[in-house]
Amino acid sequence: MWMTGTYDPELTLVYVGTGNPTPVLNGDARPGDTPWTCSIVAIHPDSGKLEWGFQATPHDTHDWDAAEVPVLVDAAFDGVPRKMLMQASRNGYFFVLDRANGTSLNTFPFATVNWAKGIDKAGRPIPNADKEPARDGRLVAPNEGGGTNYRSPSFDPATGLFIVSAQDSYGIYFFKPEHGAYGWAGADYGVSGKGVLRAIEYQTGAVRWSHDLGDGASGAGVLTTASGLVFTGDSSGNVLALRTSDGSTLWHSGIGRVGNSPIAYELDGREYVVVGGGGVLYAFALPDAAKP
After folding, report:
1. What CATH number did the domain enclosing 137 receive?
2. Which of 27, 76, 249, 256 is the most buried (most CB within 10 A)?
3. What positions carry a catalytic annotation?
4. What is the overall mean pLDDT for the chain?
């Protein structure tokens, strides 16, 4: 499992996405929601005490741990200033929570999903039992790789857009008791998958724009800048610079597979963007106007 955390010094809470229950695909062996697996939890760092928890995937049977990066945003929601936590979850849903108490403000799908019957009053997807792994297989969206995964998203405060490297995908999940009640069973997540960068309006869940990233999920995280740029990578080995407001491509360079998040820094008055591709670390900058 991948564990990620974000610290809020004002509320003195650490926000962490948690891992899977076990056995993962055999839900009959562990009836109920299995809290606090596949959840976002707020923890006091000094004592380890749980302040609150929100379960993104109750009774997970598809390997959708909630280990994506929780993003902390201070902004208005329905005209009221809020301290929010946003997470695009591996299960294909985008969550907006009040990070002081964990209550749900919004829940929307941001990728192709077919495993839930709706959203409950607490803002959690309601699992459809017909989509649990079975001997003859169940076609489920998203696949085991998830609607997104470990790669970091980014929030742009100027546009109010949450930008995430997503995947629209289907997989076949199956479970055979003779393979062992506590075994992995199986999931074929090579059925179909298409990577796409999505810019989500956090108040409505509407997708402002999408940018095709190629076949399969991209491995790259997302960087947004105050100058209105988005940096990421696609599935074809390119690092990309897009316009944040509309997702149009401004620049790209073929550097090999990007499996990390670009970073930006300033040195001696010049700004650089650094990203790894194909086992090599690249630093990009605009031409130095002081040099001929």
Report:
1. 2.140.10.10
2. 27
3. 63
4. 93
